[in-house]
Amino acid sequence: MGTRIISFIAISILTLSVNAALADSMGGMQTSNSTSATQENMAGMAMTQMSYQVTAANSTYLVTIGSNSQVPAGVTFNAEQKSLSFGVSGLSTRDLSHYEVTIPSALLNGRFTASVGGAQLKIIPVPNATSTTIHINISGPFVKSNGVNDSSTVILVGTQAVPEFPTGLVLALPIVLAASIAITRGTRAFRLTS
After folding, report:
1. pTM of the model
2. Which fold has domain 25-161?
3. C-alpha distances in Å from residue 79, one per residue of 56, 100, 129, 132, 175
4. Dist CA 75 CA 55 (whole Å)
5. Sequence spans of domains, the chain
6. Which residue from 89, 100, 113 is spatially nearest to 65, judged by alpha carbons?
7. Burial of 131 (0-12, 13-18, 19+ CB in 10 A)
8. How far apart are CA 5 and CA 90, in angstroms?
9. What is the DSSP code (8-state) at residue 122?
10. DSSP assignment of 55-112, as one string?
11. How far is CA 7 from the centre of its chain?
């Protein structure tokens, strides 16, 4: 009887931990603008740059977006879809809108694709040891010929995203299972000797 209670408690704790981890990983992310600066990009265009704090899987990551157009008010990360998205506007009124998006590799990495308003974009990803900077050019004629709205969403999709389960949870699972087995076997040995 005591073994069943202890096993039930161990399984209940594990279930609560898994549910909390799933809720955290699927809860999206929180953003806040932390920095704004103006600089020049590789092509010599004046760029405004914003940094956004993205929270996913109990960690906070810094995503930076620079643009010669309006910088987005925020970004959205979706671990399940392995995507990062942000709103853009004024696309049809500019000859060229250029975006440089720097994403930490621990958040999202791999082979990237991008779209705006459903139209596929050509991108130039530049990876380094800790992040990937993705260069995106969106021209006014591209927007008009592809029927993209003046205010749309850019969606970047990678092939690998931050783990949905925190590392601590993955390590805790074998420990809880081993403890349950040890308790069950220990109780049986105690009954046989008494």
Report:
1. 0.65
2. Chondroitinase Ac; Chain A, domain 3 (2.60.220)
3. 8, 21, 21, 17, 27
4. 11
5. 25-161
6. 100
7. buried
8. 62
9. -
10. EETTEEEEEEEEESSPPPS-EEEETTTTEEEEEE--GGGSSEEEEEEEEETTTEESS-
11. 35
Contact 3, 172 (CB under 8 A): no
| pLDDT tens for each residue of 14-48 | 333 333 333 333 333 333 344 444 455 555 668 89
What does the CA dihedral 143, 144, 150, 152 come to, rounded to 10 degrees? -40
Interatomic CA distance for residues 45 and 24, integer angstroms: 39
Residue 56 is encoded by which pair of tokens?
């996913």
**The token pair that represents 59 in the structure block:** 């960690």
Tell me the pLDDT tens digit for each residue of 92-140: 888 999 999 999 999 999 999 999 999 999 999 999 999 999 999 999 9
Report the run of H or E that residue 157 belongs to, with start and end: strand 152-157
Residue with tokens 């390590």: 171
What is the spatial distance between Cα 149 and Cα 65, in angstroms, rounded to a whole number? 21
